Amino acid sequence: RKFTTTNLSTQPLFLKTMIAIFNKILILLLLTGATKGDYEPFDPVDLGTAGDFAILAAAGISTINSTITGDIGVSPIAATAMTGFSLTLVDGLYSTSDQVAGNCYAADYVAPTPTKMTAAVSDMETAYSFAKGTTNSDAARINLSGGLLAGLTLTPGVYTFQTDILISSDVVLDGPENAVFIIQTTGALIQD
User: Fold this and answer.
1) What is the model's pTM?
2) Residue 102: other Cβ atoms inside 10 A
3) How many Cα atoms occupy the beta-carbon half-sphere of 74 within 13 Å?
4) pLDDT (tens digit, 9 = 90+) per residue, 150-163?
5) Which of 97, 137, 162, 187 lies 20 to 30 angstroms, CA to CA, from 87?
6) Which residues fall within 8 angstroms of residue 90, CB to CB, at 6 or more apart?
7) Residue among 61, 178, 185, 174 nearest 131 (CA)
């Protein structure tokens, strides 16, 4: 299957993307399937309840003009860490935004949202630790194109960067439904 950065929202439910930011290390854009099968160079990353989110962050989420399909959330920080979304609070449980086709959650909303966010962030940290510890043994996938991924087709595996990653046009993730793509960087992920 091929997925591009512009059509991810139209893909079946097995497609999961997550951005996790810890200690100035940005890691992961994951495409994982629910079953093992054709392609399995390493175990899939178990996202747990973090997989319920399109974007989940411990440091904040900012936008100028985006369209996000799926829920977004921040924890352990407050909803004020989601900037640029013009949030509308609904019953104190979550917010909505014209830029998000889903709900927006934060740790400072009313119960049971804090519990949900704590579990999701815990699962994100577990997934992050697993993905961070996954070794990239392919020298061709280290600092690929100097971090300029525009127009590239990536195959399943681990990609490691010591630079920022810039995506200014489509990037194709080409692999079977159960493929795993892990992108590790000590820099930033910039979508232009």
Assistant:
1) 0.72
2) 18
3) 15
4) 899 999 889 999 99
5) 187
6) 96, 103
7) 185
